[in-house]
Design a protein that fits this description.
The complex is a heterodimer.
Chain A lengths: L13 H20 L5 H27 L3 H21 L3 E2 L3 H24 L8 H32 L1 H9 L4 H26 L7 H8 L4 H34 L12 E2 L1
Chain B lengths: L6 E12 L2 E12 L3 E5 L6 H8 L7 E6 L4 H4 L1 H7 E4 L10 H7 L12 H10 L16 H14 L4 E5 L7 H17 L3 E5 L3 H7 L2 E4 L4 E4 L13
Parallel strand pairs in B: 3-7, 3-8, 5-6, 6-7
Antiparallel strand pairs in B: 1-2, 1-4, 8-9
Classes of the chains: A mainly alpha, B alpha/beta.
Chain lengths: 269, 234
């Protein structure tokens, strides 16, 4: 591969991607030989990876040509809607209005965090410059939706399965907040596990994709590390905001003014 | 208990429904301090639902409940529940020591008194247990022991009204008798009032002043020939 650009970045063509696909092909052949039954799913996942990423690549190339706020907003709205849907669908229980709650939380935590990074830390002008805004928001949403779905799943399961504990606390004179605090805290902690874990091992066990990409493009590793630290903090802030936000909105929905847990609002899928 | 004792709890024109099915309606009931009323009816007539609704854990279909002339809304729901405590049939204790389970309920904002361990020990003794149990994990106890610890937890709050749902369902005869003695003692010494759901007609006879038949909404004094409507005797 002799396609090193003068700036140090690597240009990849279809042939390079085909070589990478060979590695997956090897895994598929091994699965076939050992009768693991993985080959069909591996093939489907590989095809989806190629199609989905090329699709978003071409969309981004088109969007990047115009620094147009309405266009950015339209793309951002679509991304947040898809993230809200995915975050709720991964939970085994739901309640009426949960999609809206997830959407609102993702809009607030996603936009606030990405604005802090593009508008304040990096100082991009305009702050919604698509080249920065869209990839950063993508990372934020990807992590936040995982946190939200874990929080939601654990909280709804906890309030259903341990309803008698919550009601015992209420019956002994606890306020709804006092009775809900333990399940809420447990659920937020559960939602934050992936982000906390990745922050704990970053640089030791794993090198994050964004940092690796910058280094491969010839960036100074220390500069790439600075970017990565900002990104990790941004993801941690957005995910904790998402987890706490969905937990609080769920609490507000399921506990009423009479300090009752309205467990009948929780539906099992 | 006498007619001169203060009126504590008033139930006015109460209807209870479960999933849109009305279980009973038009219930009026006065509970005075120191009074014990047994609530009897066959299964499915809404005994547990009535207690849950009085405790404010669910809503009445219609009607209202007053504690010393005030609605729970006026009293504040947590403060109301501190005075009208529900003791569930199934004991619910947290995965911690008995002492922590007992003191936990004094961490709430609505708690006006502090945890009095000597009072808890006295109550445990009266129920046939001793203070060694305080250091044990509550979930390692037998169901009968857990039921008694739950009763102690309810009593150390010092409520005005105790709502008891089958309080001795997991107790042997001796423990049941100690429980009844304790409730009677609390009623006479501390003017505790109690509504007790029981299937056991003999239990209603032994320690209730009156019996409410939910099937007919008839309130009658307990007499020796009193039989609960489901016909069960112990």
């Amino acid at each position: 591969m002799n396609n090193m650009l003068s700036q140090g970045a690597m240009h990849l063509d279809a042939f390079d991607i085909a070589i990478a696909a060979l590695l997956v092909l090897v895994a598929g052949v091994v699965s076939l030989v050992l009768k693991l039954g993985l080959e069909r799913r591996l093939l489907l996942a590989s095809i989806r990876t190629v199609v989905q990423l090329f699709l978003i690549g071409y969309v981004l190339r088109y969007v990047f040509r115009f620094e147009n706020l309405p266009l950015v907003l339209a793309v951002v709205t679509l991304m947040v809607l898809a993230a809200a849907r995915a975050s709720v669908r991964r939970s085994s229980r739901k309640y009426s209005g949960v999609y809206f709650n997830s959407f609102i939380i993702l809009v607030l935590s996603g936009m606030l965090t990405s604005y802090s990074v593009t508008g304040v830390i990096i100082g991009v002008d305009p702050w919604y410059k698509t080249q920065y805004m869209i990839p950063l928001l993508g990372m934020i949403l990807g992590n936040s939706l995982t946190g939200i779905s874990l929080t939601l799943d654990y909280l709804l399961e906890s309030l259903s399965e341990r309803r008698n504990e919550v009601e015992t606390e209420l019956a002994m004179g606890a306020t709804k907040w006092e009775a809900a605090r333990a399940p809420l805290a447990d659920a937020v902690r559960r939602g934050m596990i992936p982000v906390i874990n990745s922050m704990m091992v970053v640089g030791i066990v794993s090198l994050p994709g964004m940092m690796t990409g910058q280094i491969l493009q010839g960036a100074d590793p220390v500069q790439a590390v600075r970017y990565q630290i900002v990104v990790m903090f941004m993801i941690a802030a957005a995910t904790s905001g998402g987890c706490m936000g969905i937990a609080l909105l769920t609490y507000k929905k399921l506990f009423n003014a009479r300090h009752q847990l309205d467990y009948r609002l929780i539906e099992k899928r | 208990m006498s007619e001169h004792d203060a009126l504590l709890l008033e139930l006015k024109n109460i209807s209870v429904a479960v999933e849109d099915k009305t279980l009973f309606s038009g219930l009026d009931l006065d509970l005075r301090s120191g009074e014990i009323i047994a609530v009897c009816a066959p299964s499915g007539y809404g005994k547990t639902s009535l207690l849950r609704a009085i405790a404010g854990l669910s809503d009445f279909a219609s009607g209202e409940v007053l504690l010393r002339g005030k609605t729970p809304f006026e009293t504040g729901w947590p403060c109301y529940r501190r005075r009208v405590v529900l003791l569930d049939q199934k004991p619910v204790l947290f995965d911690m020591s008995v002492r922590e389970n007992l003191s936990r309920v004094f961490n709430y904002k609505s708690a006006s008194n502090a945890f009095d361990e000597s009072r808890a020990i006295e109550l445990l003794y009266r129920l046939g247990m001793n203070e060694d149990v305080l250091d044990k994990n509550a979930r390692s106890l037998s169901v009968g022991e857990q039921q008694r610890v739950c009763l102690v937890r309810a009593l150390i709050i010092d409520p005005q009204v105790l709502l008891m749902d089958e309080p001795s369902s997991a107790l042997d005869e001796k423990s049941e008798s100690k429980l009844e003695e304790l409730i009677r003692f609390e009623a006479s010494s501390r003017k505790l009032a109690a509504l007790v759901v029981t299937h056991k007609s003999t239990q209603a006879e032994r320690f209730a002043d009156k019996k409410l038949n939910l099937e007919t909404l008839n309130l009658s004094p307990c007499a020796s020939d009193c039989v609960c409507p489901d016909g069960r005797t112990q």
